[in-house]
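**Reference record**
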Amino acid sequence: MDQSEKKRKLIVGGALVATLIAAVLVEEEKTVVDTVDTIQPVKPSGDRVKNQENNVEQLDVSKLGQRKFSALAGELFVSTTWAPKKPQANLQEQAAIAAQTAKASAPPPAPTAPPLQFKYAGKAVADNETWIFLSQAGENLIAKLGGKINDKYRLDSINDDAITMTYLPLNIKQTLTINNKLAGNFR
């Protein structure tokens, strides 16, 4: 064993011995505390007991009445504020507030698909399959009927005037019109 390992074992051993000594001392203190006499309660004097008995006879519980229940009494987390209360609004202000609330509570408009960002570059027909060439933000894309484009669009139909696609997250059909009629055939 080298010097650092001996030193480490000596420190760990010393800590273990100190822990055992502390545990023995705590056990001894518990036995000392257990031997202390318990204190007996003081009994009231005879006159005082008689006065209490007389008071019990004179007390009519039915005259006390019932407690009134408050809805706020059971509320554990009541919000309190030091801000002064707002003055009550007149009828015109209340009508304006009601109109704003009605507008705010109206359902939001239905989600729509984003506009198509594709540009038609051309198409090619080979073995009864039509391939469409599109560009989007400088990137060239190739798709065929039923194929997916960027995992967001599906190519549904192709004709000479337009390409129909479905925006997959919302299942909304969109049409891309074809302005130039470029077509090629592979042979």
